[in-house]
Design goal:
single chain, 332 residues, eleven-stranded mixed β-sheet, 5 helices, globular
């Protein structure tokens, strides 16, 4: 769904960790393998709802009980310049840290885990700012979160996470993307430090704040094209683009299209000379609410994890809804 490239920034919050440009191969209903890749920042105006019969069916699966992971702690750095990280487990009992990323189409596992993945099904390339990597497609292994097997797509891809210094230092060996997340209603309660997988009867929409329809927005440049998880709304600083990407793997508050920012001359000047340093914006009004102390990138229209962490966030993927309930104006 959402191939991205990893862009290495300076350190900590200055990292676009989720922008992995993948020749990612998915299985269609007919069993035909399809490939897609992207190297762009800007969405076009084409968009479709992510709500589907397949997504609706996972609602029923979720009712069975055992397939819903328990409530787990949110790591301290999530939304504070760090990734939203969980511990995944393999069937052999080994475990490793993985990022929850709505900006990634599927599951990426570190190359060091290849012995546990069995036979490679298809070779392909992954492109990043470090150059291209030889990668491979494998059947999805059994993956567990707090002892509960996750529902995921048929395939995973491998990636050498050691090529990214921040990921190597954090011990990251996986990314959980949309082909897994789309099966769940996921709530991020940064105030209480909890990540919850909700059952249908637990979704009380009157208590969840503002509602937004989730959609997939086409995004391409040149011969590459992909789809990004988005809502129909202007960006954090306005503008005319109303395809606003929602990306939990992007560690800043967000980014805006080129030309949107007016004024803020000093921070723009610093950003011009030090491109990896994001803009410091003191205040903005978004969706009728005021927010302060923002860190904003440029070149695409997106809300990232640092902004989401100012809210109680509920991704009801089976119903195609995002709910945001503001908790604080400033960062957590």
């Amino acid at each position: 769904m959402i191939p991205r490239e990893i862009l290495k920034k300076n350190q900590q919050i200055e990292i676009r960790t989720n922008r992995i440009v993948i020749g990612f191969i998915c299985a269609s209903i007919s069993g035909v393998l399809l490939s897609g890749c992207v190297t762009t920042n800007r969405p076009s105006t084409k968009a479709t709802s992510i709500n589907s019969a397949d997504a609706q069916s996972t609602r029923i699966i979720g009712n069975s009980g055992s397939l819903i992971p328990p409530e787990i702690p949110i790591n301290d750095k999530a939304g504070r310049g760090g990734w939203l990280v969980v511990t995944l487990e393999l069937e052999d009992g080994s475990s490793f840290p993985a990022i929850i990323d709505t900006g990634c189409p599927g599951i990426l596992l570190d190359k060091s885990l290849q012995p546990a993945l069995g036979k490679q099904l298809h070779p392909f390339k992954i492109w990043t700012m470090f150059g291209q990597q030889d990668s491979g497609l494998y059947a999805t292994p059994k993956l567990y979160l707090s002892g509960t097997q996750l529902i995921a797509g048929q395939y995973v891809a491998t990636y050498d996470f050691s090529k990214s210094s921040p990921m190597r230092k954090a011990g990251i060996k996986g990314i959980i993307g949309m082909d897994c997340l789309v099966n769940y209603c996921v709530q991020l309660d940064f105030q209480k430090g909890k990540m919850r997988f909700l059952r249908p009867e637990q979704v009380v929409i009157t208590e969840l704040g503002s509602s937004f329809d989730l959609k997939s927005s086409s995004n391409g440049r040149g011969s590459f094209e992909t789809e990004l998880l988005a809502i129909h709304h202007t960006g954090l600083l306005g503008g005319t683009n109303r395809d606003l990407i929602i990306d939990t793997g992007y560690n800043n508050d967000g980014a805006v299209d080129d030309g949107v920012i007016k004024g803020h001359y000093l921070t723009r000047l610093i950003h011009f000379f030090i491109p990896f340093r994001n803009l410091r914006i003191g205040r903005c009004v978004w969706d009728g609410e005021e927010y302060t102390n923002l860190r904003i990138g440029t070149g695409w229209n997106v809300i990232g994890l640092r902004f989401l962490a100012r809210h109680l966030v509920t991704f009801d993927f089976p119903q195609g809804k995002l709910y945001l309930k503001k908790v604080s104006s400033g960062p957590p």
